[in-house]
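User: For my dataset I need records formatted as: sequence, then structure tokens, nothing else. Please produce one.
Assistant:
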Amino acid sequence: APNNDLLVWMHSQRVARRRGKLPANRQRLLDQLDFIWDTKQLAWARHLMELEAFRKRFGHCDVRLCNTPNKKFLGWVENQREILRQGRLPEERRRWLDRLGFIWDVEQAAWDERLAKLKAYRKRFGHFRFSGGVGEYSALRQWVCKQQRRLREGKMDPKRKTKLASIGFAWETR
């Protein structure tokens, strides 16, 4: 259990510094101990450590895939993406998250994962044809049909089209 006296003392040091009443020598000593002045920074660091532990346990940083019961943590992860989109994520924080392999674009990561499965399918069977609508590859077959439909409708992202073309994807496999 945390020492309440210590927590109260730490809070009083932060308040005194914020008000400009903390003696310089005391601030220097606390700085030498890497005292965290900004409690929001402390909370962010705790979540970063939680993400690091998550990555060690699951081998990735896609928190959504593991249906974590910690909704606060999941919210923090999603919030980092939103803060980046808004251009408000400090570069240092982005670098920390990048080092862990943080997934910034969840939709693109899922698409790339399906592309990798399609490559593996072609390597195994030598083609892109799918028989039947059920079984082990039914989800991949549905994804392929969706890519073909998006191309026909003119809604295929050019980068994705290039990636599919690079593996010899047949646009009409039916």
